[in-house]
Every structure is written in structure tokens, then in C-alpha cells.
Amino acid sequence: VFIAQSRASGSHRDLEDEELTRIFVMIPKTYTEEDLREKFKMYGDIEYCSIIKNKTTGESKGLGYVRYLKPSQAARAIEECDRSYRAILAEPKNKSSESFEHDYYSNNMRPELRGNTLPFCMQPEFCGFEKAETRIQEPVSKRLSVVSRLPFIQEQLFALFDLVPGLEYCDVQRDPHTNSGYAVIQYSTAASAIYAKYKLHGFEYPPGNRLTVIFLEDGNDSSE
């Protein structure tokens, strides 16, 4: 697994520090920081572990952070750790951690959303999807429309869709009347667009905010 850096971003090290090396996990309330380190050290070099505790009682909330030295190590931990940990990339420290923790916890407690907050990966079911879902009536194309009730940040949306190979451009727009998010995404091949729609339609980004992804007409013969 590789995490793509936005072409428009600034310092690579700043980006790693803020967004790509710290993961957020759900853990048993009995875990100590040493237990957390022991479970996740197999995926890479850990800079630190911390457990989120109730400020009044000092008891664990059953949530924690693991900070790795490299983005590739954090990505490996997310992909390979037990799904019960619900591992995702943590919000940067300069954002509200309490609201992030609340959204994360509430989303993972709702059974119908489980899996949506996990970064997508190449899964076995895609093999069956490729044969069956490409025969649906909806015309496919290399261009996608992405809609959200929250406005998009260009760099973040680009980084998300750039995880699927072949991204050509990401054009983010904002409706001044509703403040909702709208973007046009284009890939070099229809296959990439199909896979991106399959994985990201309904995906929660950020947690609690579902993306709606549909095909846009790109002027080509969709039967190809």
C-alpha cells in the first residue's frame, strides 16, 4: 500500500508529520500503552503510542493513537492489523481531536457503517465485481462526479482519488448557496473510474460524511 502525496502540497515532511504517520485505533479498555505498542510494533518503527483517557476518571476510552516513523508503516498497520481495531489515519493534531474521536466512535458502533471508515484495499470480492458489475445498465465513463454535504479541500480529495491509479485531474467546486462539496474526477481509463466508483461511492470522508460518486458523460463510447 502506498499513500500518494498531493502534487499541490507543500513540505513532504510536514505532510508526513500531520497526516500520514499517525493512526487511530479502537482497543480494549484494559490495554496499556505497552500493550498497544506490543500489538502494533510488527508493522514498523513506532515513535510513540498513547491511549485516550477520560479527563475526570482517568479511565481508558478504548481508543488510542500509534505514531510510526514512516507513512508506509502506518499504511501497512491499517491494512494488516485485525479489523477489530478499526484502524484509520488520524486527523492532524491541529484539528479538533474530540470531535474526530466522537465521529469515529459513533460510526464504528453502527453495524451498517462498519468497513466504510476503513481505507479501501484490493479485496477478493473485486474479482467477482469486475465480471458482474460491469454489465450494469448505467453507462460508464472515465469521468466521475463526486458530491458531499460538506465542502471539499482540493488537496485531500486529490490524495483520496489518487490512490486509484490513473487519476488525470480533480476539479473541486463549491456551491456558495449550500456550502456543499462538488468535484469532477477523471481517470485515464474507464476501468480505473469503475473501480474508484465501486470503492468510494458511500465511503465516509471524513467519518460521518458519505460521498456520492456517479459517472459523468465524457464523450466516449461507453460500450468499450
TrEMBL record:
InterPro entries: Nucleotide-bd_a/b_plait_sf, RBD_domain_sf, RBM45_RRM2, RBM45_RRM3, RRM_dom. It holds the Pfam family RRM_1. Residues 21-95 form the RRM domain. The keyword 4Fe-4S does not apply. PROSITE patterns: RRM. Gene3D superfamilies: 3.30.70.330. GO terms for molecular function: RNA binding. The keyword Ion transport does not apply. This is RBM45 protein.
